Amino acid sequence: MSGPRCPQCAQPCASPRLLPCLHSLCEPCLRRLGPPEGPPGAARPVLCPVCDAELSLPAGGVGQLPPDCLARSRGRAAGCDLCADGAAAGRCLTCGLRLCRFCCRAHRRQKKTASHAVTELESTKDCSQAGQPVLCPSHPAEELQLFCEQCDQPVCRHCVLGRHRHHPCDLASNVIHRHGDALRELLQSSQRHLDTLGDALSQVDEMGGAVRSRAEAVAAEICLFARGYVKAIEEHRDRLLKQLEDLKVQKENLLHLQKAQLQQLLLDMRTGVEFTEHLLMSGSDVEILVSKGVVSSRLTQLNSVAYSTHPSVDDRIHFSPHERAGQCCGYEVFGAILNKVVDPARCTLHGEDLHSARQSQLSGFTLLCRDTAGERLGRGGEAVHVTITHRDKSHCAVKPTVCDNGDGTYCISYSPEEPGLYAVCVCVKGQHVQGSPFTLTVKPKFREHQGVFHCCTFCSSGGQKAARCACGGTMPGGYQGCGHGHKGHPGCHHWSCCGQVKESSECLCGLPSDTSQRSLLRTVAL
User: Fold this and answer.
1) Which residue from 397, 303, 291, 413 is spatially nearest to 354, judged by alpha carbons?
2) C-alpha–C-alpha distance, residues 153 and 163, integer Å
3) Please, which of 46, 88, 203, 390 could form a disulfide with 396 given CB 3.0 to 4.6 Å?
4) Residue 271 pLDDT greater than 90, yes or no
5) What is the pLDDT of residues 185-207, one digit of tens each?
6) What does the mean pLDDT of the chain come to?
């Protein structure tokens, strides 16, 4: 049997070395691994060419890696080292030779080797041990038979006398049981990990199958969705084309009708003109006077016919790809044909703040655009222009904000800085809409109440006689404020600062018409 081959160079491996990842390479390949540069004596990082594991070669170099004894023993045939014919049945412990049964007997009979100890090989382990002894890398002539406990490595006799002199050492056969048991425990732990890893790999494979199955199912759903979507789009396309064809036929029919009416009117008008011209040029005075009534009546009738000098329809047909078109086959589709034209005279304004607003308060109203038939436009994009100007102070113009909602409505918001009357103009395509221009009344800022909303001063002040209320009510007994059922009490809850009976009302304190109440004391807070 030929020797083992290096997995890197595929050449016979005479002296394989074992890497930390338990893969072995020949020494030449090991020396070519990793970067050659680096300080002498430093460990070199390398990658195993078999498993790509990141490793570090010993500081002493490749020679410090342990030899792969099993690889060497696997490479040798279990045959006799003397005759090379028979299978090895024993091993000489003195000279380390493997011997067949015939050579074992001859080895014992020869004078030079009669004293050698020959043992029989009974197991596979014995067969592997029947090979050449493992020699010391530092003393190649010596066999590694001892073990240094401190350095945790096999040594030879010369090593024990040298740098391992003071280290605890023992025969390898004496310590193999202890170290072998430790390896067996690690082996059992690793075997348990093998089972766990095997189960994990099975689960990964199962999940991979589940992912593939799920992906196939989702792909089928996507294809079904896409087919439905394509069908919906095709039906929507056909519906749009049908709408376009109907719109084209409608416009063409209107044009044909207008054309026929104009042609008939032109024919009648030409006949009346030609007859009248011929009558005036060729007829006698009497003939003209006889026909005058009929001709005059006919021409008057033709001249009174109303007709348009422009086509009754236009060519405004547009396609909006981003317009929402509702549902088709259960899918939302986009794209619509637009043929409605905004009519500023039919556009309307809406909102609570259309004619009144508050100073420094954000207000607004809504513009609703309609077409010539009065129907609401379902799209935006119109040119809307709004101006808000103070009637008395031209420099107090308000800059409004126009927001296109995209559905035919526009929100106009504004915040006037000064009170007064304002002129508001709302134009679409340069034309005023319905109700434009109109007057906007901006009131001063809302006056918050400074008093309390109470039933009477007696209750809210805790019975203080000097407490007064702007309602003007009085009580007997020296009380200056109002009380239930007494003179001046409004008969309901009211504000102590101005007498207003609405809780959400605006305070009247400080207004010119409030001179009779400005000297009254406020009721103390509850």
Assistant:
1) 413
2) 13
3) 390
4) yes
5) 888 888 888 888 889 999 999 99
6) 83
Name which of 66, 234, 214, 230 is nearest 154 in CA terms.
66
Please state the separation of Cα 328 from the chain's center in Å.
28
Q: Provide the sign of the torsion angle of the four alpha carbons 209, 213, 214, 215, taken in this order.
A: positive
Retrieve residue 493's tokens: 């809850």
Q: How much is the pTM?
A: 0.43
- Record the tokens describing residue 48, joined without a space: 């195993």
DSSP notation for 255-313: HHHHHHHHHHHHHHHHHHHHHHHHHHHH--HHHHHHHHHHHHHHHHHHHT----SS-SS
**Structure-block tokens of residue 52:** 């790509």
Q: CA-to-CA distance for 484 and 462, rounded, in angstroms?
A: 14
Q: What is the DSSP string of 88-142?
A: P-EEETTT--EE-HHHHHHHHHSTTTTTS-EEE--SHHHHHHTSPPPBPSSSTTS
Domain boundaries along the sequence of the chain = 174-303, 344-443, 448-526
**Using CA atoms, how far apart are residues 499 and 449, in angstroms rounded to an integer?**
10
Interval 84-97: pLDDT, tens: 677 778 888 777 77
- Find out whether 335 and 320 touch, Cβ atoms under 8 Å: yes
Six-digit token pair at 4?
């083992």
Q: Which of 21, 34, 97 is nearest to 61 (CA)?
A: 34
Q: pLDDT-derived band of residue 122, with 50, 70 and 90 as boundaries?
A: low
**Contacts with 168 (C-beta within 8 Å, 6 or more apart), sequence order:** 148, 149, 150
Alpha-carbon gap, residue 106 to 99, rounded angstroms: 10
Q: In 379-519, which residue ranges form alpha helices assigned H by DSSP?
A: 457-460
- So what CATH class is 344-443? mainly beta
